[in-house]
Amino acid sequence: MRRILWAFALMAHICSVAEAEEAFRLDTPAWLTLKGETRVRYETLQGQFRADGEGGDQLLLFRSLLLAEADTGPISFGVEIQDSRTYLADAGTPLSSSIANPLDLLQLYTRIDELPGVFGEGSSSKLTLGRQTVSIGSKRQIERVDFANVIKSYTGAHFVSTAERGDELHLVYVVPTARYPDARPALDDNELSGDEEQWERRIWGVHYRRADILPALAPGLWGEVFAYGLEERDSGDFPTPNRSYFAPGFRLYRKPVSGQWDIDLEGALRRGSRYASNDPSDTQSLEVEASMLFAAFGYTFDMPWQPRFALEYYHASGDEDPFDLNYDQHERLFGSRRTDLNNTSIHGPLTPANLNAPGFRVEVKPNARWDARFYYHAAHLASKTDGWVIAKLRDPSGQSGDFIGHMLDGRARYWVLPDSLRLELGASALMYGEFAKDVPGGPDGDGTLFGYAQLTFTF
Questions:
Q1: Which range (6-20, 148-162, 206-220) has the least confidence?
Q2: Taking the C-alpha atoms of 252, 356, 247 and 168 in order, what is their torsion angle to the nearest 10 degrees?
């Protein structure tokens, strides 16, 4: 504990005396890239919303990343180390392998950088092979997470071709990496245990992004079409629901720019089959018909602080009948949820599964160092007979209603040293609605509060 307090005191001192105006970067030869980050975050929670939870919680999280990449010309070789540890957890803390993953290999890849492009003259392609992180487009389908203490990685191939005007074609075929340890008490003790590829789970994707699809009517508007798939079966160490999914979708996106409207509209269907659980004795196949839709329409005002206001809506389907042979819930698989919905980690009550959440967002950027955002969602269950997924609470009768509650979320960030040392403060509140109050086994009190303080040093 003394060392933890000393570390916080040292970082506070750095913040108080920092006067540098240039980013700190390591001096390396031109052929070698060496970069990374070290991050510390303290979280506190009042009012546990999860099933069987009670009281408050706190957690101290550390994450360090180090990436080395050697560029030999047409081929590059990269390796990235991740070390994610936690302290101050107790028996009620929802620890998992997405929060703690001590010293392991996040990436180990070979990238062929000078391949012919598929878009003709002026285009180029690259192919990454090996263990790697993947982020495409909005990151709602697959992403390299940022806020989470543990970053997901995959092993396989990722091909990207880029046109001179900015168009992109992504082809992905990978297997996810299982992170260990994945159970207590090993998670509490930050035990070292190597991550392993889940060879019986295969993810594929085709994602095309076209720049400036309506140059006369809406300059800067991107159009995207994609299809992703998941095929899995049980292995000796990892039972699964044997999911077989096909998920086509689209996106329209115009980024926020001062003095103009912006849009982010993304939808996807999911068809296929799965079992109800990963219990090896469960062999009843269910037909999957699920969908998701995110819509945001905003405007950035051309004035000091560049305020942006946006109306938002997130819908992810829920299971209508828990007793039939259909599975209608849209599960979050490998995509993001923090950017659209709420702070995560030991909080994060909302996820894009059985969710119906209209809301709004306000963002400001006073200068190059400061930015802040606040958003609100009126969170409902898409199906009142399906569950509140993160809380693991469900009323199959539907008599508890569908209103989870009022979700408020905000953060502020400040570059203490530009592009090197960033301070971030955030808070969330969920004020319980009828479902949270009436569902059997639901949380006590009127709501849950969450706050965090984070300092990240990037080099």
A1: 6-20
A2: 20
Indicate if the alpha-carbon torsion angle 14, 18, 23, 28 is positive or negative: negative
Contact 387, 322 (CB under 8 A): no
Backbone angles phi, psi at 434, to 5 degrees: -60, -40
Please state the pTM of the whole predicted model. Answer: 0.91
17: pLDDT strictly greater than 90: no
Per DSSP (E only), the strands in 133-285 are 154-162, 168-178, 196-197, 201-210, 222-232, 244-254, 261-274
* Alpha-carbon gap, residue 384 to 209, rounded angstroms: 36
Helix (H) or strand (E) holding 2: helix 2-17
Cα–Cα dist 317/208, whole Å: 25
CB 76 within 8 A of CB 69: yes
Amino acid at 85: R
Q: Which residues contact 7 (CB under 8 A, 6 or more apart)?
A: 40
Examine residue 256 and say whether the peptide bond preceding it is cis (omega within 30 degrees of 0): no
Q: Which tokens go with 191?
A: 């035990």
What pLDDT digit, counting tens, does each position of 340-363 carry?
Answer: 998 889 999 999 999 999 999 999
CA distances from 54 to 347, 411, 435, 449 (A): 13, 26, 18, 13
Instruction: For residues 198 and 238, give the distance between their C-alpha atoms in angstroms, rounded to a whole number.
Output: 8
Q: Which two tokens stand for residue 202?
A: 């295969």
User: Across 345-402, where does the E strand assignment appear?
Assistant: 355-364, 370-380, 387-388, 393-394
What digits encode the pLDDT tens for the residues 206-216? Answer: 999 999 999 99
d(CA 27, CA 20): 17
Residues 6+ apart with CB under 8 A from 323: 396
Check pLDDT > 70 for residue 21.
no
Provide, rounded to the nearest whole percent, the portion of the chain with pLDDT above 90.
86
As a whole number, mean pLDDT of residues 430-455 equals: 96
Please provide the DSSP assignment of 171-207 as one string: EEEEEEEEPS--STTTTTTT-----EE-TTEEEEEEE
Using alpha carbons, select from 162, 174, 137, 159 the residue that is nearest to residue 335: 137
Q: In whole angstroms, what separates CA 255 from the centre of its chain?
A: 19
Helix/strand/coil for 399: coil
Residue pair 384/396 in contact (Cβ under 8 Å)? The answer is no
Backbone angles phi, psi at 9, to 5 degrees: -65, -40
Helices (H), 234-310: none
Q: Give the pLDDT band of residue 24 (cuts 50, 70, 90).
A: confident
Q: Is 407 exposed, middle or buried (0-12, 13-18, 19+ CB in 10 A)?
A: buried
